[in-house]
Amino acid sequence: DAIEAGGVRLNLPNATRDVLAKMTDEGLDIASAMKSPSYDRTDGAIVSPASNGESGIPEASYDDWTAASNDRRDRGSNFGALRAASSLLAQSPADHVLRRDVALSASDLGFPAAAFQALKSVAVSRPWEPSSYVGMAGAARDAGLPDLAVVMYEVCLAGEWEERFVSFRE
C-alpha cells in the first residue's frame, strides 16, 4: 500500500513501516534541536543591526546581505551570520532557490535544525523535488536526530518522483 504525502506517493516496505511505528516522538522532534544554547550565543561579537525599509523589513541586496553574513561569521558570530543570511528571505519569501541557499548556509554555520526547517518549507511548496528530502535527512542527522534522518532517507527511497528526477534513483 502506497502512502500519499504532500502529492508524492511513497511505497514504504513493511519492515520500514514497522521501524517507523516504533520510533519515539523525541527522536523525530526537530524543534528540540532548535533549543540549543548556541542559538542565543554571539560569542562576544558585536553585531550591527540591519537597516529597515518603510515596511519594517530589512532591505539590502543579495550581495549586501551575503557580505554582512560573512562579516558576522568572521567576527565570531555564526548566529549573527545566519540572521543576516536569513534576512534575504524577508525580501523574497517565495524564492525556493534562495531558501535552499540559506539552508546550506545554516548547515555550514552549525545550525542543522534551522537548515531542516528551511528545507521543509521548500518541500512543502515543491514536494515533487527529492533534493529537499535528502537535505532534510542530512540536517536531521547533523542535528543528532538519527530517527528523523532515517525517516527522511526512507522518503527519498520510497518516493515516486517525476521523470525529470530519474537521475536521483541512480
From TrEMBL:
Name the record gives this protein: Uncharacterized protein
Region (Disordered): 41-61
Organism: Trieres chinensis
